[in-house]
Amino acid sequence: MSAFSESEHVDFLVLGGGVAGLTFALEAAGHGSVLVLTKRQRSEGSTQYAQGGIASVLGGDDRFELHVEDTLVAGAGLCKREAVEVTVREGPERIRWLRTLGVEFDKEGPEHLHLTREGGHSRRRIAHAKDTTGREVERALLAACEARGIRLVEDAVAVDLVTSGKLGLGGPNRALGAYVLERASRDVSAISAGVTVLATGGAGKVYLCTTNPDVSTGDGVAMAWRAGASVANMEFFQFHPTGLYHPDAKNFLISEALRGEGGILRNKAGEAFMARYDPRKELAPRDVVARSIDAEIKRRGDDCAFLDMTHLPKPFLLEHFPNIYATCREFGIDMAVQPLPVVPVAHFMCGGVVTDLVGRTSVPHLYAVGEVACTGLHGANRLASNSLLEGLVFGRRAAIRAADELSEVGGTRPRIPAWNPGAALAPDEGVVVTHNWDEVRRLMWNYVGIVRTQKRLTRARTRLALLRGEIRDYYWQYRLTPDLVELRNVADVAMLIVECALRRKESRGLHYVLDYPEKDDRQLHDTVLSLGDLDGR
Ligand code: FAD
Ligand code: SIN
Hints:
The protein is α/β, with parallel strands linked by helices. The chain has helices at 19-28, 46-49, 64-74, 81-100, 133-148, 219-226, 257-260, 286-300, 314-320, 322-330, 387-409, 430-447, 454-477, 482-503, and strands at 9-15, 34-37, 54-55, 107-108, 112-113, 115-116, 126-127, 151-153, 156-163, 175-182, 188-198, 231-232, 237-244, 264-266, 305-308, 340-349, 352-354, 366-368, 373-374, 451-452, 512-513, 528-529.
């Protein structure tokens, strides 16, 4: 039986139950009916796996200006200062809010939080709960939603946004809700909403190797794009320098906090190599460290580098990194006595759906918060631990604005036609889906990775055009499955990354292209794409 009624209508439809979606839901709850949808089990998303913590000005030696400056430096000229200012200045209040919800951060003494350090931060400012901060934050937010009686439906996959433009209604194109596929029954329901909120997280699954969980398939960006919203800066995909390199570790992250606490990167010969690449060594910003590891691995022909923690006392490692310690032990590695094998892997989407400072996209009544959004905070490269913070700050800001907007929308309830499956058949060629999934992710890894060339990007564009054509045909011929929905989105997001990358003819932040190895300040602007820019591609 479907979880939704035939004429389901809510004031706030929130697609995603990570830090951004749940923060929005909690703040909006007093202003109208809220429905949160999650694609799989409720806690499954990047938030749950966040390790390092949340950056905020909390230490006696820290100031807002320093956090702002560190964020701007990492962003390599493309951050929007206002977005950085509001995020940094509203940070400490957001941490207090989490504590009122019961989040247990690690403490130093009875009063103060223990603050750790990560690359690019000039001060210790990362509040954390051991090395499982995200799990603690997600637990507390879900508990708060339950206590508020907020409705949450799991295994509900948003397929596409419904807009007035798609329905052929008059007036400017605006969001009216979404079509949603239920995993168990395969039913597709139409849900109409006063305000629709994308909080669908990132798109690490576009790449073969990633820290991201399986739900991170860029659905929000792809849906927003198809609905006519502006998307920007997709060329800036952050690779985390230290994913665990082990045949059985699908996507396990080795937190940057290990380097913050003194970890040393070594090559296979045991040499500490970072000083040859950057004077800030292990604590240089992430793009620099990831490229340095990549270069060192390629120079020597090795398959990985190593993060050495063996000079630190075992009790310290167990106290600060219990989850990483235990997980590595499961893979047969004792980090107290053996350096950890690591490689850079796809981690964070700095671009996304363009929003203003209150989460509004270019499509009226459509909001985007969290990793799916491009608020201007990250610019060309995200500073470590700024993204949970972004979800907390913009989730709240968007909810306040959306609550005002709801009164403007009034009681109008557009009737959304039921999903039309057409002549769709039961899928009989599952191999098309698995093959194309693999091909997109492999070509992105090989052609659109840490170091790029125009030639490889052009090849990727050609291959993706073919694959997207095939996927489109399959999509309209067969009944929807969650895998097919995700495949279509992954291919669309891959295309957006390639198109943005081809447009930026310089190297800046995370986008490093051998044909244009220097920064060119004449290109100091966002790469913004809208549906019309790509001739229906
Ligand atoms: P997510 O937490 O990813 O949640 C996305 C939600 O959207 C999920 O509920 C999912 O089910 C739902 N969803 C997706 N598509 C659909 C759909 N089609 N229909 C319905 N629902 C959908 N950042 C930091 O600041 N500090 C850290 O220490 C840190 N560590 C990290 C460690 C790891 C391993 C990873 C992967 C990321 C880390 N990050 C960290 C980044 C940070 O965790 C994410 O950017 C952030 O949690 C994103 O939150 P979100 O709410 O935007 O999305
Ligand atoms: C980490 O713990 O290294 C991840 C931090 C982040 O991605 O912000």
